[in-house]
Amino acid sequence: MATSQVTRYNNYIGGQWVEAGTGRTYSIYNPASKDTVLGEFQTSGVEDALKAVDAAQEALAGWAGTPAPIRAGVLFRAIEILRQRGDDIARTITLEEGKPLSDAQGEVKRAMNIMEYAAGEGRRMFGYTTPSELPDTVAYTVRRPLGVVAIITPWNFPIAIPAWKIAPALICGNTIVFKPASATPWSAVKLMEVFEEAGLPPGVMNMVTGPGASVGNALVESPLVKGISFTGSTEIGTGIYAQGAGLLKKVQCEMGGKNAVILLADADLDKALGGIIQGAFGSTGQRCTATSRVIVEEPIYDQFMEELIDRTSKLKIGDGLDPEVDVSPLASKSQFDIVMEYIGMGTEEGADLVYGGNSVTGGIYDQGYYIEPTIFTGVGLDMRIAQEEIFGPVLTVFKANDLQDAIQISNSVKFGLSSSVYTKDLTQAFEYINTVEAGMVHVNAPTLGGEVHLPFGGLKSSGVGHREQGTEAVAFFSEVITVYIDHAASARERARFI
């Protein structure tokens, strides 16, 4: 695509679309057609981030003082705009990130659901009253916004993850500086346009694109930023949490996963296979809740492997805009290189590559970052492909003697985000629920996703700080204030607090 045809997109600060002070831009490309430029975006610096913080600070008093049900009205309007633009935004996600169009449409729908739930919290921002130990005293709690919050999001869900942070932050009365992933700024611009049209006052939400090393660090370090919500790698999230804690900021970090499905001998194998294949290869494995490990009870291992390979071989690989495609390209060259490197590690470490493992080339495939769905067996627990998050269409399969052995294998990694068991035995299902080390557990269902009114997050290296979504989101984006009111008619000696 010629440079003259490329649209340039700006930051959004204080209600205005503005260029970065650096004077620099960068281009993003379609991962299914890597020579196609989708747009130019601002390469922002520290100065731009701090201007956005100042704009958010200036808008804070007005937005925090707006009654929560009125704030909810903006979210309800945004939902309707998202509904009207849903097809266009879903297509943008597929062009920019690569996922199948049906997945992108589901992501837009999820963003709408999240915003609907958060808007409802505008009339449920509950505190509580409690009897005081003092006479003529009323004691109760209220919620107050944190202030200016920084929202830093990844590329794999460029609409849904920002929405599930932005919506509760807004309903609680905070103002926002939104730093989207450098790889998916186009979707972020579309989302920002939705909120602008919905009537969000200038400065309440600001968006700055560019590198995390400059923009992200500036947001973490700014004394005006009181809260940080981050989704991304464990390494970066751990650093943000430590730095934020040192600056007395409220921080939540959702990080990596190495999610396992346990398949017991009594399970409905057909149902399990559908969930495992969807979890491992849907969205090209580029989900934090993707299935990257399967732990199979020995009596059904051979039958499972035969059917797994057969079904995997029937998956169609191609451009996410093709409605018949099951597995779309990796999101970028860097992701492609990382996944291919891990596949090479697996064979070098001695695992058995039983299916896939190659880049897909020839014809249209030469235009994108395509990798075959890949399956390893004979994987040692200490191998890197068994321990590290790959974030691609790579599945490792283990054999277990029984449920206890399977749980031990499942718990052998540093992550603990999502997990699943397939079984018809209720006793074994509850033993799994009570002993597996994961923040979200599923019985006879895939490891994927979660519902918007329930907490989302993991244990161990998968997350730190408050969970996201549901009532936990309100708890993170607000502070609890305890109020005591003495309504006695005259002075009196007060009992001492203990």
Query: CATH superfamily assignment of the largest domain?
Result: Aldehyde Dehydrogenase, Chain A, domain 1
> What fraction, in percent, of the residue positions are helical?
25-40%
Report low-confidence residues grouped into runs of 5 or more: none
The largest pleated sheet is described as: 7 strands, mixed
**CATH architectural grouping of the largest domain:** 3-Layer(aba) Sandwich
Overall description:
It is a single chain. The chain has two domains: 3-255 and 462-482, Aldehyde Dehydrogenase, Chain A, domain 1; 259-443, Aldehyde Dehydrogenase, Chain A, domain 2 (3-Layer(aba) Sandwich), CATH 3.40.309. It starts with 10 loop residues before the first strand and ends in a 12-residue tail after the last strand. α1 (46-64) crosses α6 (212-221) and α3 (101-120) runs parallel beside α4 (160-171). The relative contact order is 0.14. The strands form six sheets. A seven-stranded mixed beta sheet has the order 14-15-16-13-12-18-19, sandwiched between helices. The protein has helices at 46-64, 68-97, 101-120, 160-171, 185-197, 212-221, 234-246, 269-281, 301-313, 333-348, 384-387, 403-410, 426-435, 470-476; strands spanning 11-13, 16-18, 25-30, 33-42, 129-131, 137-145, 148-152, 175-179, 205-207, 225-231, 250-254, 259-263, 291-297, 352-355, 374-377, 394-400, 415-416, 418-422, 440-443, 459-460, 463-464, 478-486. The protein is α/β, with parallel strands linked by helices and 498 residues long. The longest helix is centred in the N-terminal third of the chain and has 30 residues, at 68-97.
